Amino acid sequence: MKKHVGSSLYHLIAAAVVLPLVATAPSAARAGDLTAAEQCDREAGSEFDLERNRAFPAVATEDIRIGVALSACREAYNQNGGARTQFQLARVLNRAGQKLQSARILAEAAGNGHALAMASYADLLAERGMAGTSSGDLLTARRFAQATTDGLQ
Questions:
Q1: Which interval of the chain is the signal sequence (predicted)?
Q2: Each residue of 94-124: pLDDT tens digit?
Q3: pLDDT tens-digit readout, 56-86
């Protein structure tokens, strides 16, 4: 009986150690298979973004891992990432303290029709004291974003 209890305890402990390792292995393998845009989605998707890739959980601003997110989002952006990628890169740049670069890319995302980028850009312009943007009017924000984007090219 004592031998059977010891053997069962050994198997229980072994299972407790091995199962968590096996359970995490597939997700680690899948992480290497992600495109740059998907990595950016995983590292910088905002909970407030209705256009966010829902395959990944949202990331709070304070939880953005700047190094990983910046690398992934810049790569996705350089691969002609769309408005969502532009918005996420702007979000990471802002978190990293690169405010001017963030504003420029946020303007691109707003100009390309990303709704949260338009609202965020409108707020940014309102903070800078521009009349007509404090109401959060998306059309106004889009016009300002397009004008700024045109001016940056």
A1: 1-31
A2: 999 999 999 999 999 999 999 999 999 999 9
A3: 999 999 999 999 999 999 999 999 999 999 9
Residue 91 · residue 52 · CB < 8 Å: no
Confirm if 151 and 116 have CB atoms less than 8 A apart. Answer: no
Sign, CA dihedral 38-57-98-132, equals positive
Q: Looking at the whole model, is its pTM more than 0.70?
A: no
Computed over every residue of the chain, the mean pLDDT equals 80
Q: Where are the domains of the chain?
A: 1-33, 34-152
Structure tokens at 126: 């309102």
Report whether 43 contacts 59 (CB < 8 A): yes
